[in-house]
Amino acid sequence: MPQPSEDHLKNVSLDFEEMWNFPNCIGSLDGKHCRVKRPRKSGSAYYNYKHYFSIVLQAVADAKKRFITIEVGGRGKQSDGGTFNASSLNRLLERGAFNIPEPRTLPNSNITAPYVIVADEAYPLKEYLMRPYPQRTLNQERENFNNRLSRARKTVECAFGILCNKWRVLLKPIETDVKHGRLIIKTACLLHNIVIDIDGHDSNCNSENRTTQTRHRRQTGRNNNPSNRAKQVRNQFTKYFWENNRLIFT
């Protein structure tokens, strides 16, 4: 997939604001284990904690459940955080080369915040990557932020569910070598986007999509001492959501 342009990411953020009430969001990030037959001479490298062999699809989805960027090939043994840290997406973000637009003022406020990707607790907290507050630290404001983030983040979960329900080869072990398995997964992701562009997106994320996806639940990732700036950005969104009285429960 081509790297998204700055204008494209701005349009994505407007969709997230309108559809999911999370302004300045340019995508939701997650990983999914895709079953494969045991690769030759791989030992336990592709064996995940759910006790099957897999390669990892890492994806960023937009508000309409299309894939903005994907990477396929992480070994099943890796955590989502480990897959992200080793990814070209992480390198682009760290270098400031992902075409993220300049910060803008959040709607109906005087708070200027950067554009961000949303993810779950398996990922690190960065200036450009928001994760939930830990449960042990929650108060009402932080819980409100977590609810809002969770609502926006589910677009990538729904995208995985739609992907697997449409291209059912992903619901069982892929009977090829890893190289061709990666190609099959990438092709399915491209076709997924084409179908949504032609047929339109489903505004709902129904339970069927969410339960049939064979995505993994992995252990919570370490936060790896987030920077003060990353904490400040999350605090900005927390304050904004609370002051705008937009409590959302999912």
Automatic annotation (TrEMBL):
Q: What molecular functions are annotated in GO for this chain?
A: hydrolase activity; metal ion binding; nuclease activity
Q: Which domain of life is it from?
A: Eukaryota
**What Pfam families has UniProt attached to this entry?**
DDE_Tnp_4
Q: Which InterPro entries is this protein grouped with?
A: HARBI1-like (IPR045249), HARBI1_dom (IPR027806)
Compartment(s) of residence: Nucleus
Q: Where is the DDE Tnp4 domain?
A: 29-193
Its Gene Ontology cellular component terms are: nucleus
Query: Which cofactor names does the annotation list?
Result: a divalent metal cation
What keywords would UniProt list here? Hydrolase, Metal-binding, Nuclease, Nucleus
Question: Residue ranges of region Disordered?
Answer: 202-230
PANTHER family, sorted = NUCLEASE HARBI1-LIKE PROTEIN, PTHR22930
Q: Which family does it belong to?
A: Belongs to the HARBI1 family.
Name the record gives this protein: Protein ALP1-like
Native organism is: Eumeta variegata (Bagworm moth)
Q: What lineage is on file?
A: Eukaryota, Metazoa, Ecdysozoa, Arthropoda, Hexapoda
